[in-house]
Write a structure and sequence with these properties.
Blueprint lengths: L1 H8 L4 H13 L13 E3 L2 E3 L4 E2 L10 H6 L4 E7 L12 E4 L4 E4 L8 H8 L8 E6 L8 H12 L5 E5 L14 H19 L8 E5 L5 H14 L3 E4 L20 E3 L9 H6 L1
Parallel strand pairs: 3-4, 4-7, 7-8, 8-9, 9-10
Antiparallel strand pairs: 1-2, 5-6, 6-11
Bound molecules: flavin mononucleotide (FMN).
């Protein structure tokens, strides 16, 4: 039955399929997986297993309980912005079926931190590790202040927080992965978290999510700065603005962040499937 549901949703426009899947999980209309146990410890957090659902699926923290029931050891909700915003005009997510790839330019469509907090406050069990991924509003004049606001508002619901500075779909955001911008955003997130939780044990560790389009020198410099600020780890990586030459789909030049399987590093998806 679930295979049929997957087949049907794959025929729908991508964003509609995404939204219907969120609603199905929210309503508990999803299979319950056998618990996969492979205990893993990261930054002081005990994961039942190391398979996580990345940010971008459950943007408004509506369906994370259903995602845990699917068997994920970790679910990262968001990206959540302080104020609600619509994101980019549709269509804004594209399946590159021939390439097993996806391009999205959602642009942080978010119902905002207050709606997310309401959903997170009804978390019924502490089962699974819940990450909360925070971002800045597109029109915000002070992006660092946005990280302070969201960290202060959402920290108490999170097992860990992710400061997302790597979406390619918010103009100027990725510039904040460097030097003073990076320090300012991370410091703001730490201050927001500590304002909410106090300087005590049990407050959520903070990670930073970086783009795959940094060159090695930029990446190491940004990591050094982030570690110096007290970051507990890195989420690597967000989607890329690069396009491998072997993509064949007509939609391959749509603007946005692309995600494709590792097989593209070695050959076409078709080659890797038949090998
Ligand atoms: C449709 C879509 C929407 C995404 N939205 C977000 C987002 O809101 N915030 C974010 O940090 N990452 C977002 N991502 C990036 C994913 O979280 C993830 O980092 C990326 O797809 C790479 O996945 P991988 O680590 O499995 O290779 C999105 C990805 C896709 C495909």
């Amino acid at each position: 039955m679930w295979q049929l549901a997957a087949k049907l949703t794959s025929r729908l426009p991508a964003e509609l399929a995404h939204n219907l899947t969120i609603q199905a999980l929210r309503l508990g209309l999803a299979p319950v997986a056998n618990q996969l146990l492979l205990p893993t410890n990261i930054a002081g957090m005990a994961f039942d297993n190391p398979v996580g659902l990345a940010a971008g699926f459950d943007k408004n923290a509506e369906a994370y309980m259903g995602a845990f029931r699917l068997g994920f050891g970790c679910v990262e909700v968001g990206t959540i912005t302080p104020l609600p915003q619509m994101g980019n005009p549709r269509p804004r997510v594209f399946r590159l079926t021939a390439d097993d790839a996806v391009i999205n330019r959602y642009g942080f469509n978010s119902k905002g931190m207050r709606v997310a907090a309401a959903h997170l406050s009804s978390r019924s069990t502490r089962h699974g590790i819940l990450g909360v991924n925070i971002g800045a509003n597109k029109l915000s004049q002070d992006k660092a202040a946005d990280y302070h606001k969201s960290a202060a508002h959402l920290s108490r619901f999170a097992d860990y927080l992710t400061v997302n500075l790597s979406s390619p779909n918010t103009p100027g955001l990725r510039d904040l992965q460097h030097e003073e911008g990076l320090r300012a955003c991370l410091q703001a997130a730490f201050d927001g978290r500590d304002d909410a939780c106090g300087p005590k044990a049990g407050r959520p560790p903070i990670f930073v999510k970086l783009a795959p389009d940094l060159d090695a020198a930029e990446l190491f410099r940004s990591m050094d700065i982030a570690l110096d600020c007290g970051i507990s780890g890195f989420i690597l990586t967000n989607t890329t603005t690069s396009r491998p030459e072997n993509l064949s789909s007509a939609l391959k030049d749509e603007a946005g962040g692309a995600f494709w399987p590792a097989s593209h590093l070695f050959g076409t998806a078709e080659n890797s499937r038949s090998s």
